[in-house]
Design a protein that fits this description.
There is one protein chain. The protein is an alpha/beta fold. The protein has four helices and 28 strands. The strands form seven sheets. A nine-stranded mixed beta sheet has the order 1-2-3-5-7-8-10-12-13, with no helix packed on it. It has a five-stranded mixed beta sheet with strand order 17-24-23-19-20, with no helix packed on it. The chain has a four-stranded antiparallel beta sheet with strand order 16-18-22-21, with no helix packed on it. α2 links the parallel β14 and β15. The termini are far apart. The relative contact order is 0.05. The C terminus is likely disordered.
């Protein structure tokens, strides 16, 4: 009886309790594989439903419009017994780091085909029982260091088509139990073998479908991958072009090479001092180790004064060149060439000297020619300057002379000069425009006036000026600027003293000798008729001061004062040579 009563009570309580399978719409709840499962696919949900039974173990929210998973998204809905969560194609863009908090028995999460760009490293923190994690087709692009928290039971991780370009070598450091890793169809060009060194249980590594660049950076991973036997599909080289579409196992390790790179240092143009030393070089990167050579202006360097030194590093080296006693022959372009099995690279370094203004050294004969040339040029320039200044001076003096009277003689008065028995012709050399310098102060003086005493047009004898006027410097005393020359026609075989009755050169009186002076005639006797012209010099309207005496042909004088019986003025032929007269 007691047993029957207990069974009847249990049945009554069971009938009175609500059935978990009676899920409110739009979800459907049922047993699947011994798990309480709630299916809410394609129901247009914007978040985790809060009306489900807390005993739900499997929740499928795929193909909904859940843009984000907030903090404690499942705990807040009372779903703390979830073991599997499916959120494929739900439009999720953001996942809070504590979205799966307190789901301690969670073993599987599928977030494939969403728009998750950033995945926080603590996103699955506390889900220590997690075994399967699917993140396929999310634009993650990068996996940083310790991308995942400590998940000691995680066996499978799938990151297919996640546009991954970079994976840190310590991205999976906390996934020590990982057995299968899917990285297919990403954008990976290289990986480090250190990324998988901590996987003691790794059995499957899927890497096909990536654009692998088979160079020196991938060589280490290639060697590890081929010896690990983790692959089931052969990997193909995508770059460089010479290795494109070749299987990794068909390419030798040394062919996984890096194109050499050369960089000039300290700079591509180096300035040196003539006679000094200078060092420069290039920094070379390449694997396998490239051979480095230097060229000067396109020719190999073999000068003994050039020293080449190399300092090798792990992946690069510096190759320096030193030039001793720099001169013009060392100036130019130096080319650093780095070459390995894959390709070659080069860089130019130009060596220059400071710009110096130089002059060509002349030989002794050339110097003489140059000096004579300079002297001639100086003389020509000086003469041109003097002529120009003289022309200006003379033009100025001519203009001033037209309005200025001639200075009187310091030796005779104007009346005494009228008593000369000869014709005085004054001529100023104005036509030539010449102003010969007579002294230092010549520029301040009037142009020189030349006075000529003439007689008959017979053969004439011209005597030089007195010594005091033969130099370019004026003698002491005020002689003015008048020069007088005496030109007398004389016949040495005929001397007629009677022809000059009025001169003081009489036979009964001793003739005095005058040097540099003119002999004045005696005062005329009132009763006597003068035979000389006492009118003095005439000045014509044209400015000429020349007075012509009548010649021997008997031309009558034009002055009324001359007596009719006088046909000509007697010529005076002194017995001694003519003297110069200074006025």
């Amino acid at each position: 009886m007691a047993v029957v009563f207990v069974l009847m009570l249990t049945l009554a309580l069971a009938l009175a309790a609500p059935d978990w399978t009676d899920c409110p719409s739009p979800c459907h709840c049922k047993w699947i594989s011994g798990k309480r499962s709630a299916f809410c696919k394609k129901q247009g949900l914007a978040g985790v439903p809060a009306y489900l039974d807390e005993g739900i173990q499997v929740l499928d929210l795929s193909d909904n419009s859940i843009t984000q998973l907030p903090k404690t998204a499942f705990q807040s809905a009372g779903l703390i017994n979830l073991q599997r969560i499916y959120l494929m194609h739900s439009g999720i863009r953001e996942v809070h780091p504590e979205a799966f908090k307190d789901l301690t028995i969670l073993v599987e999460i599928d977030l494939s085909d969403n728009n998750i760009v950033i995945l926080h490293p603590d996103t699955f923190y506390g889900n220590e029982r997690l075994r399967w994690l699917y993140l396929n087709r999310n634009p993650l692009r990068r996996l940083s260091r310790a991308q995942f928290p400590v998940l000691p039971h995680l066996r499978n991780l799938e990151l297919e088509q996640c546009q991954l370009q970079f994976i840190h070598k310590d991205a999976f450091v906390h996934l020590t139990a990982l057995e299968s890793l899917n990285l297919k169809n990403n954008l990976l060009r290289n990986l480090s073998e250190a990324t998988f060194m901590s996987f003691a249980h790794l059995k499957t590594l899927m890497l096909d479908g990536n654009p692998w660049r088979c160079d020196c950076e991938l060589r280490g991973f290639r060697n590890w991958f081929l010896t690990s036997k983790l692959y089931s599909v052969s990997l193909l080289c995508f770059e460089p072009e010479i290795l494109a579409d070749r299987r990794w196992e068909d390419v030798e390790a040394w062919e996984f090479a890096c194109v050499p790179q050369a960089f000039a240092f300290p700079q591509q143009q180096v300035q040196a001092e003539a006679g000094g030393n200078v060092s420069f070089g290039c920094h070379v990167i390449g694997d396998p180790e490239p051979k480095v050579s230097w060229m000067f202006e396109g020719h190999p360097i073999n000068h003994t004064w050039l020293v080449i030194e190399a300092e090798e590093g792990i992946l690069d080296k510096w190759v320096n060149i030193t030039v001793y006693n720099v001169s013009e022959v060392d100036v130019g372009f130096y080319t650093c060439i780095a070459k390995n099995a894959l390709d070659s690279a080069e860089v130019n370094v130009s060596l220059v000297l400071p710009e110096v203004v130089t002059a060509t050294t002349l030989s002794k004969s050339d110097s003489v020619v140059v000096w004579w040339g300079l002297i001639v040029m100086a003389v020509v320039l000086t003469l041109s300057t003097v002529i120009t200044v003289s022309a200006v001076c003379c033009a100025r003096k001519r203009n001033s002379m037209r309005t200025r009277n001639m200075q009187a003689s310091v030796s005779f008065t104007d009346q005494e000069k009228k008593l000369l028995d000869v014709s005085i012709a004054t001529t100023t050399d104005r036509g030539t425009g010449s102003c010969e310098a007579i002294g230092p102060d010549m520029d301040m003086m009037d142009p020189p006036v030349h006075i000529t005493i003439e007689r008959e047009p017979l053969p004439m004898v011209v005597f030089p000026p007195p010594p005091e006027f033969s130099t370019s410097t004026l003698p002491a005393g005020a002689y003015g600027n008048i020069f007088i020359s005496v030109s007398l026609s004389r016949d040495p075989n005929f001397v007629d003293v009677s022809r000059c009755p009025d001169l003081l050169d009489l036979p009964h009186r001793q003739k005095p000798v005058y040097h540099g002076m003119a002999t004045l005639p005696r005062r005329p006797i009132p009763a006597a008729i003068p035979n000389y012209d006492n009118m003095g010099p005439r000045v014509t309207a044209g400015g000429s001061s020349t007075l012509s005496l009548p010649d021997e042909a008997g031309v009558a004088p034009t002055l009324k004062e001359v007596p009719p019986q006088s046909t000509k003025v007697p010529l005076c032929v002194p017995s001694q040579p003519s003297e110069f007269v200074s006025l």
